[in-house]
Amino acid sequence: MKALIKDFIQHPEKKEKFDEIALELFDYLYHHNLAYQKFCQRRGIGVRQVRTWKDIPAVSTDAFKTNFLSATPKEDCSRIFMTSGTTTGISGKHYHKDVEIYDLSAKTGFRQFVTSEKLPMAILFPDEQEMPNSSLAHYLEILRKDGQEDSKHFITEKGLEIEAFKEWLGRHKDHPVIILGASYSFVHLFEGLQEGESLPIHPDSLLFDTGGFKNFSKAYSLEDFYQKLLTIFPVQTAPINMYGMTELSTEYYTHVEKGKVQIKKGPHWIRFKVIDPLNGEEVQSGQVGILVHVDLANVNSVPAIQTGDLAIDRGDGFELIGRQKGAGAKGCSLSAKEWLEDHHE
């Protein structure tokens, strides 16, 4: 199964085979992930009832908190990525036999939607040693290794090292860099700088954030957040926001342009639909519903994930509206917030 998915990710010209491969992945996980098989059977769904990728039963992200969703025995899984668990006290766990497909998905998607250039990276998030069960820490480590040698983390056991970050920027001001971090990491940076202060940066540099920034010490609207970001880092390219979650192995991206609807787009090995949570059916075009993903890079867990996110299908991507009532805040920024609060000098 892994070889099939790997080949599909590496060959975008085969994207029309998504449906065929999604059904093969469903068949494989139905027979090898017993918890998922029971989930499907309780809904009266077997392999014969699933005829297109849209028919694949989607597991709620909450199920990862209480169920072992893996086609591989626990002792044979090399990595476990965990959600923050902040809102309920219980962490969701995503088991991976290995991270070969995960890493391939991350690098390939990033090169397609962000940049294929090897740029120096400033990472405003703890590294994998500090957060070994964070999927975002692993994702950023993949990118760091794929970037230039002088790529560095600036959130350490000391907290956000603003002076070291400024010094690094000064050394790189004559060529493009990329600054990546959880949205809350940038909020923390905002609060550590002087009002109106801007930092030295090459105008062709890239800005990249992920997660959200509401419900924290200082709330920013989407527009205010990115306006502040561009005031501090006066670059020419629109900032890039990444949408991902622990339960997925693929990310979506959007270029955040003022006054435009922010459409999140993913690579050819992930698709989405927007459903009515009351009946599971797709909502009409332009209506708000619950976001469901079918991620072919989820080779060891479940192929379809029902989120707590509200969205509108915009055809070539989705517009994220917010969170379903009762759903907690997204974990990336929560993780960054907790780390910074625990390690603030």
UniProtKB/TrEMBL annotation:
Keywords: Ligase. SUPFAM superfamilies: Acetyl-CoA synthetase-like. GO terms for biological process: bioluminescence. It comes from the Bacteria. GO terms for molecular function: long-chain fatty acid--protein ligase activity. InterPro entries: ANL_N_sf (IPR042099), LuxE (IPR007534). The keyword Ligase applies. Pfam families: LuxE. The keyword Ribosomal protein does not apply. Residues 13-338 form the Acyl-protein synthetase LuxE domain. This is Long-chain fatty acid--CoA ligase.
